[in-house]
Request: fold
Amino acid sequence: MLSVLAGEVTVAEAARRAKVSEQSVGNWKRQFLEAGKTGLAAGRSGPSTREQQLEAEIAELTQALGEAHLEARVWKKSAEGRPGPSRTSR
Reply:
């Protein structure tokens, strides 16, 4: 198919090699070009829906990690002021 697009092979030759009709090769070429345009347009418009989902998940996990870190610091600070268990009381 790429050789047809590059002009290295005619549609008729590509159809003969693939043992399909010229119409099929023409349809493939049209679909390929349309998909390429769509792909390029999507790239310019910003991240895909999946990329947006992953970025939101990363932000959520980063926030949760930060909150857990702060909680651990608070627990550590509060434990520093308390006397620990006595070694003589077993």
